[in-house]
UniProtKB/TrEMBL annotation:
Residues of the full protein shown: 56 to 353 of 354
Name of the protein: Bifunctional methylenetetrahydrofolate dehydrogenase/methenyltetrahydrofolate cyclohydrolase
Pathway(s) it belongs to: One-carbon metabolism; tetrahydrofolate interconversion
Subunit structure: Homodimer.
Sequence ranges assigned to domain Tetrahydrofolate dehydrogenase/cyclohydrolase NAD(P)-binding in this UniProt record: 143-291
Alphabetically ordered keywords of this record: Hydrolase, Multifunctional enzyme, NADP, One-carbon metabolism, Oxidoreductase
All copies of domain Tetrahydrofolate dehydrogenase/cyclohydrolase catalytic, residue ranges: 7-122
Listed GO CC annotations: cytosol
Catalytic activity: (6R)-5,10-methenyltetrahydrofolate + H2O = (6R)-10-formyltetrahydrofolate + H(+)
Family statement drawn from the similarity comment of this UniProt entry: Belongs to the tetrahydrofolate dehydrogenase/cyclohydrolase family.
Single biological process term from Gene Ontology: tetrahydrofolate interconversion
Length: 298
């Protein structure tokens, strides 16, 4: 639907999962094997537990094998690396995801770089980062959240080429790979961060805005270019005594102000969150296909 005002990530993610399920069933007929996703969770952060539960649930829904490895907060780095090594070796596992953030006593970089590149479905291994940033040539695995942003734009037929895209945030997980993906698609890209002077002026130039700063309702709708496209990646919990949980989730953009002004916008929740999980499943199926194709060639 090219005229929709709300970019419905929840519905689009469901559609993608349906497509993946068809594909996974066909692969099973061919290979008598299912793509396997291993998710490693360290500690007991409530938000991480929720994300991991969702990944497990949706992996099952599309017919993937899903392996959960829950390790205590106190686990040593050496033990965690050993678990990664075992998963690297395990032929039932095609994709490995380590839920972030890790406890402070563990080097995140060391852990992420230990994951076999061919199983790096989060796309954080240096080789996959390098391939994404090498504009000529095919990327390897692309990080799930920015990939979900682009997939949503594509499914709503939103033109990227030649447009001015502004990315708010420069993390390895969202901002940087989002900017690289937009650049690959021939957008003119600005990246803003906490040292950016006059954020509102930068925001006002965006035909496409990707907001990923993690600050509740920080971006005023009045800053936005009229008729722009807004992808709100932020997921922020704010206190709300009127809800049973005592909080509600909001994005980085002030929805009430933005909605009347924009051409289209993603809701929070129900926007990029579900798209991210769908891309993880897609990457896992891709990892399986590459592995099985490689084995049938050798
Ligand atoms: P990080 O905290 O790693 O990065 C935040 C970035 O925003 C940094 O680059 C920081 O700048 C910048 N920033 C912070 N405050 C401002 C400001 N006032 N003005 C301009 N720039 C600012 O967060 P992540 O990238 O991991 O996540 C961002 C948001 O996206 C969070 O709300 C997170 O919950 C959400 N998220 C959602 C996902 C999903 O599935 N939908 C997945 C991943 C994240 P500097 O570099 O200078 O510090």
């Amino acid at each position: 639907n090219t005229h929709a005002k709300i970019l419905d990530g929840k519905a689009t993610a469901q559609q993608i999962r349906n497509e993946l399920k068809t594909k996974v069933d066909a692969l099973y007929k061919l290979y008598a094997m299912r793509p396997g996703l291993a998710v490693v969770l360290v500690g007991s952060r409530k938000d991480s537990q929720t994300y991991v539960r969702n990944k497990h649930r949706f992996a099952k829904e599309v017919g993937l094998e899903s392996f959960n490895h829950d390790l205590p907060e106190s686990v040593t780095e050496a033990r965690l690396l050993q678990v990664i090594d075992e998963l690297n070796q395990d032929p039932r596992v095609h994709g490995i995801l380590v839920q972030l953030p890790l406890p402070a006593h563990i080097s995140t970089e060391k852990v992420l770089q230990r994951i076999d590149v061919s199983k790096d479905v989060d796309g954080f291994h240096a080789e996959n980062v390098g391939r994404l940033c090498t504009l000529k040539g095919e990327p390897g695995f692309i990080p799930c959240t920015p990939q979900g942003c682009l997939e949503l734009l594509d499914r709503y037929n939103i033109q990227i080429q030649g447009k001015h895209a502004v990315v708010l945030g420069r993390s390895n997980i969202v901002g940087i790979p989002a900017a690289m993906l937009l650049l690959r698609r021939n957008a003119t890209v600005s990246i803003c961060h906490s040292f950016t002077e006059n954020l509102s002026e930068e925001v006002s130039k965006a035909d496409i805005l990707i907001a990923a700063i993690g600050k509740p309702e920080w971006i005023s709708g009045h800053w936005l270019k009229p008729n722009s496209v807004v992808i709100d990646v932020g997921i922020n919990a704010v206190k709300d005594v009127n809800t049973s949980r005592g909080y509600r989730l909001v994005g980085d953009v002030r929805w009430e102000e933005a909605y009347p002004r924009v051409r289209c916008i993603t809701p929070v929740p129900g926007g990029i969150g579900p798209m991210t999980v769908a891309m993880l499943l897609k990457n896992t199926v891709k990892a399986f296909e590459q592995r099985t194709r490689g084995e049938s060639l050798s």
